[in-house]
Design goal:
Layout: H1 2-26, H2 39-47, E1 55-59, E2 65-70, E3 81-87, E4 93-106, E5 110-116, E6 132-138, E7 145-153, E8 161-168, H3 179-206, H4 217-235
Parallel strand pairs: 6-8
Antiparallel strand pairs: 1-2, 2-3, 3-4, 4-5, 5-6, 7-8
Length: 268
């Protein structure tokens, strides 16, 4: 029994080690920040880690070029290339940006990923290195997709770039419900179940019609009447009629009334 227990423990340890090793290999976040160590930029990159093992591609409007993109990984199999441009006819590949020169920043619902250090221009932009800018916008309906090339800014002496755009739910802001909101949702759900269930019971089982189908109608009517009476007592501005007061009999003797004589009515 002891040997069997040790054997099971060994297999469990080996399985855990393999799982941890596989988890470490699954991450393709090989980006090197151009500005050096930056906690803020690293947090932005961590948002994109779940989709770092995916390849994205798109074609230009005229179909002349095909663009390949990968987050902190080799795009189209090119070493250190984050964005690659391939000529559709000659199949010549040009590195637009490399992930060993990365910048990353974000807003409330978007992330901008910049790859510098691309291949040099041959005749434009002062023959500087190419640069790719990828704007990743919030879209809760897709984990990642809709990768498109927007424009190439090369009609100036320097600071030229390629602009791309894509959607991802991983850059969307997290939504947290407060305790009050959760309680309101629970109360609302309970009320809906109570009303619908009570209505069906009164109609189908009891056979009630009209207002009698409302569950516990007499109870709620009583609550309404009591509420109305309380509101009338507290909130009405009109003066309440004073009850009639009791007027007692005076203790002093009444004055003597003059005696009325009716002798003249007797027959003579």
């Amino acid at each position: 029994m002891m040997c069997q227990g040790l054997r099971l423990a060994g297999w469990a340890s080996l399985s855990l080690l393999l799982a941890l090793t596989g988890k470490g290999q699954a991450s393709n976040m090989n980006c090197t920040l151009a500005s050096g160590i930056s906690d803020r930029e690293q947090k932005v990159l961590n948002l994109l880690e779940p989709i770092s093992n995916q390849d994205f591609s798109t074609s230009s409007t005229d179909g002349t070029y095909t663009y390949y993109f990968r987050i902190c990984g080799d795009a189209h199999g090119a070493g250190s290339a984050g964005v690659v441009q391939e000529d559709s006819k000659s199949k010549k590949a040009t590195v637009i940006g490399r992930y060993n020169s990365t910048q990353a920043f974000n807003g409330s619902d978007w992330v901008m990923l910049i790859y510098g250090g691309g291949d040099n221009y041959t005749s434009h932009c002062g023959k500087e290195q190419r640069r790719a800018m990828v704007l990743i916008s919030c879209n809760r309906r897709v984990s990642a997709g809709n990768f498109e090339v927007m424009s190439e800014e090369r009609d100036k002496a320097r600071d030229c770039f390629y602009l791309f755009e894509m959607d991802s739910s991983y850059v969307c802001p997290e939504t947290h419900l407060s305790i009050g909101s959760i309680l309101l949702i629970v109360v609302f759900c309970f009320l809906c179940v109570y009303l619908v269930g009570g209505f069906l019971y009164q109609r189908l089982v009891v056979g009630a019609k009209g207002m009698e189908q409302f569950p516990n109608l007499s109870f709620w009517q009583g609550i309404g009447n009591l509420t109305a009476d309380g509101c009338d007592f507290v909130c009405r501005s009109r003066a309440h009629e004073a009850p009639p007061t009791y007027r007692g009999v005076p203790t002093e003797p009444l004055g003597e009334e003059p005696e009325e004589r009716d002798d003249h009515l007797l027959p003579m």
